[in-house]
Design goal:
By secondary structure, this protein is an all-alpha fold. The chain contains 4 helices and no strands.
Length: 86
């Protein structure tokens, strides 16, 4: 079933109307406010969670052009690297 883009909501609308989404946002804000994570680390962790999810839920094998294979390999290498100390 194709996604109905007419029902897309802004993050503010989701925050105001979806208790689960609001809880997620508040949990992330609390981590930032308690100085456990920086906003950049939260974004990085969210992206990494999406990558992990996609890697665990591969459904079909497709023949990818070499450029896409190179891009996926770059993402894999990035996700496996340790953060550098500042």
């Amino acid at each position: 079933m194709p996604y109905n883009y007419d029902t897309m909501k802004t993050p503010r609308a989701k925050y105001d109307n979806d208790p689960a989404y609001r809880n997620l946002v508040q949990m992330l804000m609390a981590q930032i406010m308690q100085a456990n994570y920086t906003p950049s680390e939260i974004r990085e962790a969210a992206l990494f969670a999406c990558i992990q999810y996609e890697q665990m839920n591969v459904r079909k094998i497709y023949a990818f052009p070499k450029e896409q294979i190179a891009a996926l390999d770059t993402m894999r290498k990035w996700s496996e690297t340790e953060p550098k100390e500042s």
